[in-house]
Amino acid sequence: MKVLSNIYLTRWFFVVFVIAIGLYVAAFSMPFLEFVADVVLASLLGVTALDAVLVFIHKNPITVTRKWHERFNLGETNKISLQVQNNGNQPLHFILFEGFPVEMQERSMSYNGLVIGGGKKEFIYTFTPKRRGVFTFDDITVRIRSVFFLVSRRIEIEAKGEFHVYPSVLQMKKYELLVFHQQKVNSGIKKIRRLGNNSEFEQIKNYVQGDDLRTVNWKATSRKNELMVNQYQEEKSQSIYCIIDKSRNMEMDFEGLSFLDYSINATLVLSNIAIKKGDKAGLITYSDKIGTMLPADRSAGQMRRMVEALYNQRTRFKEASYDLLYQSIRRSVRSRSLIVLFTNFESEFSLKRALPILRQVNQKHVLVVVMFENKELQDQAFGTSTTLMEVYQATVAERMISYKSKMAQTLRQNGIHTVLTLPEDLSVNTINKYLELKAKGAI
Question: Dihedrals φ, ψ of 130, to 5°?
Fold first, then answer.
């Protein structure tokens, strides 16, 4: 029964069968055609039986291997390879139906070809995931035919698997290469760093007149039986905190990716650049409540922790609480740091509510507010209008764009660094702002 459920007669079988029936019908007026019809029908049944033996003689005539990276990059083109192996000695024609993830919304694509005995054939397709999380492959279905094209056999190949979509590491590596390659090319640029008031431990030394008595190390003094003090040096690395708004305003999407996902990719890129430059990178996420809090660090495992933390971020469809954010920053970020806030103010009213708190944050730290421009509004505002309705829509779109520019100007007038950018340019504009502040010694 299992064999019968996996056997299919091709259209060529039915074409020849219809020809045989036509010959039998014609034999009523031309009797000599009956013999021809008998030969055609007998040949059809005999070759069909032989064809069925050829496609079922091997238990596993064909194998398919799927190759992919377990970690896919969000918003990037990721390659998936399908390798078809003929385990028999005879050539096989095949049609392969991949078990695409549901998120690809692909149902009609198939791959077909001819593979000789013992031969291989490879197919490569691409997938650009638009969300983070786990994606699942289903089993692969293959239909094979021999050289006679009369019988096909269906084979179900167990190939279930899953892969994880993480923030784009490819984008992180690309911008790292661009930034540090540019520094090598422009080696004459002088990097300026303004040291803050923070200090870090350097060594224990003997007390000399003039040393601060508050730095006396009493344990070392008791061991040495002479007065010992801790010596500190100005801390050379600053803390860079990326703060991501997870409220409903960040769910708006552009080319399939939400503003939250663009912010996550940019955070990963900026954190990597900061650590490579000797600074410490940290992360805070918030909406109506505080989410992930990752203290600033520059150790070897910080980027791994950053990737894992960003992987699990989800939009909370509520209003952002800036009071709660300010309290969290006061408790967690003790030293003067660069705060990069990824958010999206959609109205002047929402900005006015948050502005007093943003000013307080900017007094203790260097605050950079990153906001998004709406590309669709720009296309509508500056495109060609042919009807009266399109003129009205373009006017409204242009007014909304001017509101966003006005909000950015308001932030700058209050001494807050502001980046107003298209989603596609978010990473590069954020990096440029960080490098600009570093060069000015503002951090």
Answer: -110, 5
